[in-house]
Amino acid sequence: MKTSMEKVVAPESDEVRRLLEAGRQVMRRCGTAERPRVIDIVAAAGLSNDAFYRHFASKDALVAAILDDGTERLVSYLAHQMGKAANPEGAVRRWVEGVLSQAMDDEGAATTLAVWWNAGSVVGADRLSASTPLGALLHPPLAALGSPTPALHAALAAHAVVGVLADHLWARTSPAPEEIDAVAAFCLGRPSA
Q1: Can you tell me the distance from the alpha carbon of 66 to that of 61, in angstroms, rounded to the nearest whole number?
Q2: CATH of the domain at 179
Q3: What pTM, to 2 d.p., does this model score?
């Protein structure tokens, strides 16, 4: 999922991996109080400004790449978790648990929140929301459960669950088991009272 702001980046490049990891670390350290500078990111990566600009046109391009990388990692994790389910309902449940688990690890939650906060300047009309690839994972189980519009149902569920995740990240809280149950029931089209 490349944007017009990004240069073509070889995902296997050691320099790119180092820059992505350093960007995440520096953003986590800065939190939502300040935006990191390129000089801080290259210092954390042990690289030069030349190395940075060899791979990224701007800091916004790095942030976009970090978003893409994080989304790809989460999609892979969710697909793996869903594959362990015995039935479509279980797959949807595992998807909900996997998305909301991103708020349960303090370090991971802080990193996700900081990256999302920094992404405010790069998420535009040419960027897909993280909800889109996450929701695509729900198409098959929702279709198997009889949804007449699994793509729409999946998109709505993804936006809702990512919204719940965002609420927890900003509040620096974790969802309770009862909330996860209610969110899963909602995604399955069985809202609980």
Answers
A1: 9
A2: 1.10.357.10
A3: 0.85
